[in-house]
Amino acid sequence: MDPQVTDRPQKSRYEILAGDDGTETAGFAEYHLSEGEIAFIHIEIDSRFAGQGLGGLLARGALDDARVRGLHVLPYCPFIRGWIGKHPEYTDLVPEARRARFGL
């Protein structure tokens, strides 16, 4: 089963589910949501799933959802910030006036 990214608002995080049956939480991206903005704080992938590209899939899924929801992204998490830097098509999610603060 392909990994799936799911928002868990009650935990303030996106989770990526993987494993043989697709039900194991392989990682998560913590966020803080307020007034049209989503601030990504931390991302973590379980060491059992390291090296499988799940961090990138999690970042893409979370950012795609933020776009659909019309949220501005504040990438405080170094991984998310770096991922946006490598995928400039996502830079527009970060408010223009705040891009320099994040090195974007």
Explain this structure to me?
The protein has about 100 residues and is an alpha+beta fold. It has a single domain (about 5-100), classed as 3-Layer(aba) Sandwich (Aminopeptidase), CATH 3.40.630. Helices cover about 25% and strands about 35% of the residues. It has a 5-stranded mixed β-sheet with strand order 1-2-3-4-5. Strand 4, helix 1 and strand 5 (about 70-75) form a beta-alpha-beta unit. It is globular and about 45 Å long. The relative contact order is 0.16.
List the topology elements.
Blueprint: E1 4-8, E2 13-18, E3 24-34, E4 37-45, H1 54-68, E5 72-75, H2 78-86
Parallel strand pairs: 4-5
Antiparallel strand pairs: 1-2, 2-3, 3-4
Structural category is: alpha+beta
CATH topology: Aminopeptidase
Cross-sheet strand order for the largest sheet: 1-2-3-4-5
User: Please, how many helices?
Assistant: 2
Low-pLDDT windows of residues = none
- Assembly state here? single chain
Characteristic key phrases:
Aminopeptidase; alpha+beta; 104 residues; five-stranded mixed beta sheet; 2 helices
Summarize the structure.
One of its GO terms (molecular function) is acyltransferase activity. This protein is an alpha+beta fold and 104 residues long.
